[in-house]
């Protein structure tokens, strides 16, 4: 198995939740696994993606997730499985609503409400790609940028992510980048082809949407990911899927941060396919703490 096939298979494995009808109380119960990793907490995108799969397993066939709103309540333990409880809130003529809780040790680590819809015809417009971008094949892979560093996180980002990330704006892995602006852009796709199931592609995009959403917050202030004492954590996550797409084809992720205050930063993102069509919109607020402001923290 090649390295690219291996990382995509890891993504597909974690999206393959276990579940059984006899495990149902007032919730449908599914079990999700976490791959081995150097992290001390579960990657938020993993829990989002698995929650999308769990909710999708309970809706009538043909209803795709079109929006979700979730709160990260506790850090997940990567050494334990995650239990997903799905409550069937409503099934209407064309929409379904679900509440999904992700549990470890009997308490929720994520609480999400999601909506699903049957395909329908209607008004159609979208934003355009906001600026000219280079082709992804002309850009460096993450491994080319940080793959030579002898650090477990650098190795994970360079070689173990299931997505190939090609930075358009200068990455902020290290200090010393040129522009301190509250925006970033990257091409991304899975490292190997995925099955044709559109549910998997929507879940995979939820996974990848959590990679960089808070980067524009720290970029605006000239801070890198290795800034000493930086503490950053996702608080909530909202996502809207607009059009069909494939996660194994190049997608353009354009990110901005309209505000940061009170040790919190807001990141927003638009995801376009290679034809320039807007396929998803994302927003996330995160905690961003720096030792320079310790005196102001309780």
TrEMBL record:
Residues 183-287 form the Acyl-CoA thioesterase 2 C-terminal domain. Residues 41-117 form the Acyl-CoA thioesterase-like N-terminal HotDog domain. Keywords: Hydrolase. The keyword Ribosomal protein does not apply. Belongs to the C/M/P thioester hydrolase family. PANTHER family: ACYL-COA THIOESTERASE, ACYL-COENZYME A THIOESTERASE 8. This is Acyl-CoA thioesterase II. It comes from Glutamicibacter ardleyensis.
């Amino acid at each position: 198995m090649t390295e690219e096939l291996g990382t995509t298979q890891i993504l597909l494995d974690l999206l393959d939740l276990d579940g059984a009808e006899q495990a149902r109380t007032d919730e449908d119960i599914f079990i999700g696994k976490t791959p081995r990793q150097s992290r001390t907490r579960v990657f938020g995108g993993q829990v989002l993606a698995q929650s999308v799969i769990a909710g999708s397993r309970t809706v009538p066939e043909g209803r795709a997730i079109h929006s979700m709103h979730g709160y990260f309540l506790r850090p997940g333990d990567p050494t334990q499985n995650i239990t997903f409880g799905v409550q069937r809130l409503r099934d209407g003529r064309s929409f379904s609503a679900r509440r999904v809780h992700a549990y470890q040790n009997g308490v929720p680590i994520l609480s999400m409400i999601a909506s699903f819809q049957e395909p329908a015809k209607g008004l159609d417009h979208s934003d355009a790609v906001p600026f000219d971008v280079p082709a992804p094949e002309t850009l460096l892979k993450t491994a080319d940028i940080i793959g030579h560093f002898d650090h477990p996180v650098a190795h994970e980002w360079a070689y173990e992510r299931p997505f190939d990330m090609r930075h358009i704006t200068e990455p902020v892995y290290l200090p010393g980048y040129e522009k301190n602006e509250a925006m970033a852009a990257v091409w991304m796709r899975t490292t190997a082809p995925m099955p044709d199931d559109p549910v998997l592609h929507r879940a995979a995009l939820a996974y990848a949407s959590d990679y960089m959403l808070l980067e524009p917050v720290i970029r605006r202030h000239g801070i890198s990911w290795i800034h000493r004492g930086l503490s950053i954590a996702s608080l909530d996550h909202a996502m809207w899927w607009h059009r069909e797409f494939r996660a194994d084809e190049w997608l353009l992720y354009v990110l901005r941060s309209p505000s940061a205050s009170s040790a919190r930063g807001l990141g927003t993102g638009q995801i376009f396919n290679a034809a320039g069509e807007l396929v998803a919109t994302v927003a996330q607020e995160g905690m961003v703490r720096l030792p320079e402001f310790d005196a102001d923290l309780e």
